[in-house]
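Minutes, project check-in
Item: structure for the 94-residue chain
Input as provided by the requester:
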Amino acid sequence: MIKKRKIPLRICIGCQEKKPKKELVRVVRTPEAEVVLDLTGKKAGRGAYICPCEECLKKAVKGRRLEKNLEQYISDELVAEITAALQKAPEDNL
């Protein structure tokens, strides 16, 4: 009998829905206090998961959930960088 593999679930900080980890994008605060987009999901640091759509990012920024989860101030320039990275990230990696 084949065992069914457990699919890890994470909560999107924008829409607050549980989704499979592979469908979400990880935003990481590295040990050097730099906030970056982690498409591999393996970078070291404190992470927060978000859907790969602009709407969820806007909700997370407006509700300050991104700042609370990463425990760091998020500037408007950084939000613009993350938005641009989400737009040009290939869909097959997400």
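Outcome recorded: The first strand starts at residue 9 and ends at 11.
No further action items on this chain.
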